[in-house]
Amino acid sequence: MPAHIDQLETPTVLIDVDRVEANLTRTQTYADAHGLKLRPHIKTHKLPRFAHRQVELGAIGITCQKLGEAEVMADAGIEDILLPYNIMGAEKLHRLRRLADRVTLAVTADSLATIEGYARAFANATAPLRVLVECDTGMGRCGVQTPDEALALAQAIDASPGLVFEGLMTYPPAGAPAAARAVLAAMAGALRDAGLPPTMISTGGTPDLWAAHETRIATEYRPGTYIYLDRYQVAKGVGTLDDCALTVLTTVVSRPTPDRAVIDAGSKALTSDLLGLSGHGLVMGYPDAVITGLSEEHGTIDLSASERKPAIGERLRIVPNHACPVSNLFDRVHLVSGEHVSATETVAARGRVD
Amino acid sequence: MPAHIDQLETPTVLIDVDRVEANLTRTQTYADAHGLKLRPHIKTHKLPRFAHRQVELGAIGITCQKLGEAEVMADAGIEDILLPYNIMGAEKLHRLRRLADRVTLAVTADSLATIEGYARAFANATAPLRVLVECDTGMGRCGVQTPDEALALAQAIDASPGLVFEGLMTYPPAGAPAAARAVLAAMAGALRDAGLPPTMISTGGTPDLWAAHETRIATEYRPGTYIYLDRYQVAKGVGTLDDCALTVLTTVVSRPTPDRAVIDAGSKALTSDLLGLSGHGLVMGYPDAVITGLSEEHGTIDLSASERKPAIGERLRIVPNHACPVSNLFDRVHLVSGEHVSATETVAARGRVD
């Protein structure tokens, strides 16, 4: 196995394990200080190794966005999983039932149709399925819109023999935690008033991680990207570039003009995610270089503002705009400490689309 | 195996084999009529089955953008491969040498550094490596900028014992074939004048496919997306929506408001590629529905302009903006004829990043 990153073929993904450890510890310490339970979202790393480490450090379980990811994590011995998704379709509900037999599981619903599916699948289950109602607190994605709707669904869950009403789940919009808190509080209030107080209130998102304790009614927080951070999270002030644990190692394969470099990392390595940022990532050591364009296998860098210009054949490390989908593009990632490669990990939950 | 698309779990990828056959045949017929050799780019499908079909129909070989893709295709029995990329690094050059032992191979270079790498790797090879000079004809990515540079590299290749100068390669910018032709002609002219006439002149791109015959000096054309087409190619006029062979099958998992639907296909299924389009794909049967946002596992659809509104649990088929990176996100795709599933194929060259 290569012992130094210079021996790796490019493009590839490097995960700085020292930064991972610091990011996990810092966040767990913060959560502990505020009596908030952490349930990390594994979509960012998709690695059983890190899911176990998160639990070892104090997380009460993990969050998976897809059933297929949860199955991988259950296979790897993770015992407590939240699946904050409307699981629909006969085959998926069958898989969900099997998953519930081997891990402590909770799911979400934002419609009667979803609840009816769960109820059918768990009608004769030995243990009921714990179901949270998903609330739209401003994200504009899934979730009930009003306290009345939240209550109606909670009552429907409560009335289903195979189900138990567990609480509320939301994914608040980045940068608007106060507004989201107000909506969530109204939903929770309606449930309490109706005699169905939520046991679990789960919120999440790395961008507003350091304000998590201000959502006082929340019992759990589901950050994902905090383990690696990325250019977007740095822009949001969650950490610094020196905290970013995931980088894409790439080679300059062309220097066609004095001001242009082309690297062997394109959208198939960095993704096209911009997240409102300008440019497709940050070149470490070349702060004034701008990744202006990506095609699938090429990244084009404008060096006109950069005094130093990388040479052809030089290797660069790119902090991507968004770390999570990068993990999904690589079968394997390399764990590094500085420039030393300590292990190569298969991204076990990569590509679990369903 | 499921026999009908209704039995498939979502999200997943459907490939309409009748449309594939029509797209391949139409393009091969066009190329044959103009005496142009086709060398399809397999990045779009990444499937040995379709690479073989392309060759059966008359393609003279295939194009792969990455060494890893070429290795998969060589394993599958494809015998003639163009790798239009600067292959750099000791391990990759070693792999390139091994690949050249089992297929008819050509590569490209746009710098002395790349040529020197090839020359070292093939110094004592029994058969020389065929090298084309990559030209920048307006794309602004890799490639030499002037006829003088093209000539200097051709001479360097010609002077290297293990290499043979084969010709010119370009990827012209979409929508500007005439300007690209002029640049390419100037490069080729300089080489002919210097006694190094290019044997092979390779150009490509599906957007300008139907103007391919107008580049009279080109000997080969490398279209990729023509096999599936997609929303971008339809916008460019290459075909119609009824020609699009790749769709993402997805389920409406939430209808949180009268005008909003959320599907289980997000950027992990559709990619974030916009390619200058508005919206993240086209919903078949709902021409006025707009996919306004994607997160990794959710797609948000605005139905305010759509008279018909899909119900929760309904399955939708999405024509993506860009088909090629979608192929790279799925381990398997389903071949369909109408709504009948005829086969499930492993995307053998998926994720071959290096």
Automatic annotation (TrEMBL), chains A, B:
<dbReference type="GO" id="GO:0036088">
    <property type="term" value="P:D-serine catabolic process"/>
</dbReference>
<dbReference type="InterPro" id="IPR051466">
    <property type="entry name" value="D-amino_acid_metab_enzyme"/>
</dbReference>
<dbReference type="InterPro" id="IPR042208">
    <property type="entry name" value="D-ser_dehydrat-like_sf"/>
</dbReference>
<dbReference type="Pfam" id="PF01168">
    <property type="entry name" value="Ala_racemase_N"/>
</dbReference>
<comment type="similarity">
    <text>Belongs to the DSD1 family.</text>
</comment>
<dbReference type="InterPro" id="IPR001608">
    <property type="entry name" value="Ala_racemase_N"/>
</dbReference>
<dbReference type="InterPro" id="IPR026956">
    <property type="entry name" value="D-ser_dehydrat-like_dom"/>
</dbReference>
<feature type="domain" description="D-serine dehydratase-like">
    <location>
        <begin position="245"/>
        <end position="337"/>
    </location>
</feature>
<dbReference type="GO" id="GO:0008721">
    <property type="term" value="F:D-serine ammonia-lyase activity"/>
</dbReference>
<dbReference type="InterPro" id="IPR029066">
    <property type="entry name" value="PLP-binding_barrel"/>
</dbReference>
<dbReference type="Pfam" id="PF14031">
    <property type="entry name" value="D-ser_dehydrat"/>
</dbReference>
<protein>
    <submittedName>
        <fullName>D-serine deaminase, pyridoxal phosphate-dependent</fullName>
    </submittedName>
</protein>
<keyword id="KW-0456">Lyase</keyword>
